[in-house]
Amino acid sequence: MKVLVVGANGRVGSHLVDKLVENGHFVYAGTRRDNLTSSSNNVRYVHIDLLASPEAIAENMYDAEAIFFVAGSKGKDLLKIDLNGAVKVMRAAEHKKIKRFIMLSSVFALNQDKWNQSFLKDLTNYNIAKHFADHWLINNTKLDYTILQPGVLKEEPGSGKIDVNIDYPSENSIENVVDTLVQSLQDPNTIEKVITMSDGKTPISDALRNL
Amino acid sequence: MKVLVVGANGRVGSHLVDKLVENGHFVYAGTRRDNLTSSSNNVRYVHIDLLASPEAIAENMYDAEAIFFVAGSKGKDLLKIDLNGAVKVMRAAEHKKIKRFIMLSSVFALNQDKWNQSFLKDLTNYNIAKHFADHWLINNTKLDYTILQPGVLKEEPGSGKIDVNIDYPSENSIENVVDTLVQSLQDPNTIEKVITMSDGKTPISDALRNL
């Protein structure tokens, strides 16, 4: 499948591009940087500027059939990037009639009652931005969304095993998150689902099949 | 009527409280400060903390029959106050079944195409916060809203005359904005309307009646 990764040079995005190619997909790797080239025939860098208009963003989506949104400002520009940037990409996707939209969000972003927990306490602004982006995707678009909400990300090898629909916070290896994103694309059971996750005990494909 | 003003000590709110009393209303004056008292029998200060939960906010709405949201962080806490604080008040209003909700927004907050105009260029983060708050009120609540969107506010006496549904920016005396808010409460024709405005040529009541 041809897929667009928005935030392709990020902490998650760079691994996601590689894993998608390993799984046989062709990747439009969207970043705000220009003139990047890939050594892989299955990756084409495209210019996606989240400060541009939805129309300008749509132009560089080409013939992508699905979109991953894994961009983030690391707290530096939450309103323009994490919130409005995400919504612009949704609008562009609708304009291009690209239905499948897989969003990397954050654990409990839709559950404000949990934001007082110690591990989230310094992240309220981030959570608000993700909250309104997730909410828009669910309620203000007709996209076939999957929203993946892991907790803290760690630069560690993946176990291939996760827990889903968690109600306690826990760590996530980036590889597990990336594998879950890729397998979400391949499993229609993830459509219209919001999935909290952490490293855990169930093989990813089983966890998604039994959502 | 008994009305709640959220942001009652602000630049607009303080004038709004006075004008509402002049027009025969009883005002719950909502601020985050505690233990304030008014010299007027028709004003009661209530503690409204926009960082608290919607349930806690609802508790201090008492028997208000309509709500004005005129709070703002002046750019200092846009995600928590101008966006999520506003939405919490909407949720609290729905919880309390207070249907009438009058929002002070900002010119073109729902029209991103205009945010590149010079007078708005430094206000993108503010516009994003107001955009998502306005959008929530329209699309994610069943409240009887009026959204008033003036441009730049000036500390000047009002002329009592405005232009509405403007497509160019212009100045607004705070008194004109306050008078328009009060008259919106009294004119059901303003329900489910988004009203851009500036100081202008038409008496306020006529402008609202002919929306």
TrEMBL record, chains A, B:
It comes from the Bacteria. Residues 7-188 form the NAD(P)-binding domain. It holds the Pfam family NAD_binding_10. It comes from Paenibacillus peoriae. SUPFAM superfamilies: NAD(P)-binding Rossmann-fold domains. This is Nucleoside-diphosphate-sugar epimerase.
